[in-house]
Amino acid sequence: MPLPKTMFCAQQIRIPPELPDILKQFTKAAIRTQPTDVLQWSAGYFSALSRGDPLPVKDRIEMPVATQKTDTGLTQGLLKVLHKQYSHKQYVELEDLEQKWKNLCLPLEKFAAILQLDPCEHQIEWIKFLALGCSMLGGSINSAMKHLCEILTTDPEGGPARIPFETFSYVYQYLAGLDSDISPSDTESYLASLGEIV
């Protein structure tokens, strides 16, 4: 069907008054998040915006620290984005989590690798998935716990990154239980000594 030969002028085109602000906020979010696949991320952004869900947007730009050979794209900032989207849920559906993972332009191989650490069927406890993601960022349980505390804290950025001891203890026991090098007695004595300090 041929296009009509109607000429449009500025008076004939109606632009919704909220469109410039939506596009401005979208542009700022894209600059902060730096998605590797802008179209995939944009689909997730506008889908979340239309549903009123938390947006897949980082709080600030993260400078890349990994080399080309080891860079998997997963960062503390992206895990924090996922936490904003799921912190209100105790359990998350893996299908929904995988879609949000893809919307952040993260490789599905990394998602599968995280789930291989503690296989599950259709859903996973959110705090456990977050802990597993943090363990992928660092080489040790202490590094994973540091990332987790920085994501979960309500303290101002650059502060002590405190979280409730019960949460810390629960996640530490979970991660230590997956590490064959850490004995249950070592875990208990570490948490007991830390509990005395707290």
TrEMBL record:
InterPro entries reported in the protein's UniProt record: ROP_DD
Superkingdom, taxonomy of origin: Eukaryota
Keyword Oxidoreductase: no
Keyword check for Metal-binding: no
Subcellular location: Cell projection, Cilium, Flagellum
Keywords: Cell projection, Cilium, Flagellum
GO cellular component: motile cilium
Family label: Belongs to the ropporin family.
Protein name, as recorded: Ropporin-1-like protein
